[in-house]
Amino acid sequence: MFDYQIKDNNLLEKVILVTGAGDGIGKQAAITYASLGATVILLGRTVEKLESVYDEIVAAGYPEPAIVPLDMKGATKQHYIDMANTILSQFGKLDGALLNASILGELTPFTAIHEQTYDDVMQVNVKAQLLLAQALVPALLTSNNGSIVFTSSSVGSKGRAFWGPYSLSKFATEGMMELIADEYDNTSLRANAINPGATRTGMRASAYPAEDANKLATAEDIMPLYVYLMSDDSVDVTGKTLKAQ
Ligand code: NDP
């Protein structure tokens, strides 16, 4: 695992948005951030899942989170701008954004890639991330140490047979991260990406249905890097794709 010692109150009084916060890695990141003192804004498309994460955080006595139900497949630029404005008016600042939500699409031979799958994956994994990041960057600049964290994959820096649009979308994700990091190099905002590595979630199970999931790292296991990039210990780190395991 990434070598970082999580400390109590690591994220005290930070305001952090997590996309795809209802399930998998995003759910775990939201709960972990809240447990370390952050107020988390839970963005996702399935309201019941977000409500259950909200309940878990409140029941544990962590700072009360906020819920933003939004389907990134259909959301427009204006949705993200309105959300960023609401965050600023409710919380006064935004310190971090974990852009975690994405879809796998279908794993197929290259010549069999469906145009619709390509469009859907690129919409959710690339265009929506761009529109969201455009709205969030000004909000993150209100923080002394704003951190935007994208989510890549091993297929985001090296193409792999059959991974089709998902792989292309993760290459674009790393490119977007590098572009923002370079453009905001002389500001308080840093941009990085995480490659989570094989992690026991629903997405992993749909990509590898036959494997023994018990042998995989859990979302909880990979949290050190997720916390590090939101904490002030990483203020000098930008433009990097780091491996969580
Ligand atoms: P999951 O499929 O378990 O969770 C993805 C989350 O994103 C879900 O909460 C899902 O919502 C949400 N989401 C999907 N589509 C949309 C949408 N259109 N609008 C809003 N929210 C949406 O995936 P993981 O937790 O495994 O993956 C998290 C990230 O890590 C992804 O970016 C993935 O590419 C990356 N990754 C994961 C690896 C792994 O082994 N698990 C390996 C490498 C990278 P809902 O629950 O409502 O469907």
Helix content: 40-55%
Give the strand content. 5-15%
Could you name the CATH class? Answer: Alpha Beta
Provide the low-confidence segments as ranges.
none
Q: Give the C-alpha Rg.
A: 17 Å
Structural class: alpha/beta
For the biggest sheet, the summary is:
7 strands, parallel
Looking at the overall shape, the CATH architecture is: 3-Layer(aba) Sandwich
Number of helices: 7
CATH fold name: Rossmann fold
Number of DSSP E strands: 7
Distance between the termini: 4 Å
Keywords: Oxidoreductase
InterPro entries: NAD(P)-bd_dom_sf, SDR_fam
Family: Belongs to the short-chain dehydrogenases/reductases (SDR) family.
Protein name: YciK family oxidoreductase
Your description of this structure?
The structure is a single chain. With 245 residues, this protein is an alpha/beta fold. It has a single domain (15-231), classed as Rossmann fold (3-Layer(aba) Sandwich). It is 40% helix and 13% strand. It contains 7 helices and 7 strands, in the order βαβαβαβαβαβααβ. The chain has helices at residues 24-35, 47-59, 77-91, 115-140, 164-183, 202-207, 223-228, and strands at residues 15-19, 39-44, 66-69, 96-99, 147-151, 190-195, 241-243. The chain has a 7-stranded parallel β-sheet with strand order 3-2-1-4-5-6-7, sandwiched between helices. α5 (164-183) links the parallel β5 and β6 (190-195). The longest helix has 26 residues, at 115-140. It is globular.
What features would you highlight for this structure?
single chain; 245 residues; alpha/beta; Rossmann fold; seven-stranded parallel β-sheet; binds NADPH dihydro-nicotinamide-adenine-dinucleotide phosphate; oxidoreductase; NAD(P)-bd_dom_sf; SDR_fam; oxidoreductase activity
